[in-house]
Write a structure and sequence with these properties.
This protein is of the alpha/beta class. It is built from ten helices and nine strands. It has a five-stranded parallel beta sheet, with helices on both faces. A four-stranded parallel beta sheet has the order 7-8-6-9, with helices on one face. It comes from Muricomes intestini.
Length: 292
């Protein structure tokens, strides 16, 4: 039997994860009273049912009983029942935004103080994150991207390294991304903006990509960039980092940074030992600015 405990921060996507697992043949139960966990695990591990994949949703909605969760998990361990913890997480500002969009109150927020509730929750569930086999940071994930990651782990059985990489292009004139871990400036490369026929195009167009990359500086930079990323990723994984944002910037975020970000994404994506996505933050902003 495969027994998955789905938990994490409220608003990070636990309900979505349970729906995905249910679609993939898991028997899912959400918010089971914590004192019943041991009996629940024992019942399915006995082999008396045809159910061989179970997912159990647990979070701080368990109230006072949540304090007994460590004890229950200890009991399950003593019984020799194997389980995996999937921990869904997201940045505090993202969680606050999600709560405001849905107009929900945080279970621990009291008088509507979402940030206070989030801080309390992080403290209460920290031990679960420490024990988690899989940590997914959904701060920048679309629902379909979360679905794909869950399918890799729980359907395809692929190795998972608890790291999700976002490659982001941006324009320096619009500001450096606040959540960037690594920032690279490619304004030293030839600028397609000054070529009339290339100006309206973007780094997603082959003509712009050829112009930017058809020189020794761009190729050497790309070689050095991928070499450094290859060195950093396994060390970040060992450190326990689960979200990495690599930001590549040029002046307007339309040509050079988009080209290099696409090249880096194409280099990283086939490796498959971590999740990777691409985001072009400012690719259309010069059009908006001109129209104003």
């Amino acid at each position: 039997m495969r027994f998955v405990i789905v938990t994490g921060m409220s608003g990070a996507g636990k309900s979505t994860a349970l729906k995905v697992l249910e679609d993939k043949g898991y028997f899912c139960v959400d918010n089971l009273p914590i004192p019943l966990m041991t009996k629940f695990a024992e019942m399915f591990s006995a082999g008396d049912t045809e159910i061989d994949k179970v997912a159990l949703g647990i979070d701080i909605r368990g109230g006072q009983a949540f304090k007994g969760l460590e004890r229950e998990l200890g009991q399950i361990d003593k019984m020799g029942i194997h389980y995996e913890i999937l921990f869904l997480d997201a940045a505090d500002d993202v969680l606050v935004k999600r709560y405001k969009e849905t107009r929900r109150q945080h279970p621990l927020g009291g008088m509507g103080h979402i940030d206070v509730g989030i801080a309390k929750e992080r403290e209460k569930i920290a031990f679960l994150k420490m024990q988690a086999a899989y940590i997914l940071d959904t701060s920048k994930m679309l629902t379909r991207e979360l679905r794909l990651e869950l399918e890799k782990i729980f359907v395809e059985g692929k190795d998972f390294k608890n790291l999700y990489i976002t490659v982001m292009s941006f324009g320096f004139k619009y500001g450096i991304p606040r959540d960037a871990d690594l920032v690279f400036d490619v304004r030293f490369l030839p600028n397609p903006y000054y070529i009339e026929e290339l100006r309206p195009k973007t780094g997603n167009d082959p003509e712009v990509q050829n112009y930017v990359m058809d020189n020794d500086k761009a190729r050497e930079f790309m070689d050095k960039l991928t070499e450094m990323i290859d060195f950093l990723i396994p060390n970040y994984i060992l450190e326990g980092k689960n979200q990495l944002v690599v930001a590549v910037g040029c002046t307007g975020g339309k040509h050079r940074s988009v080209t290099l970000s696409n090249a880096l994404y194409q280099y990283l994506e086939p490796k498959g030992s971590y999740g990777v996505r691409i985001e072009h933050r400012d690719i259309g902003k010069d059009v908006i600015t001109k129209e104003k």
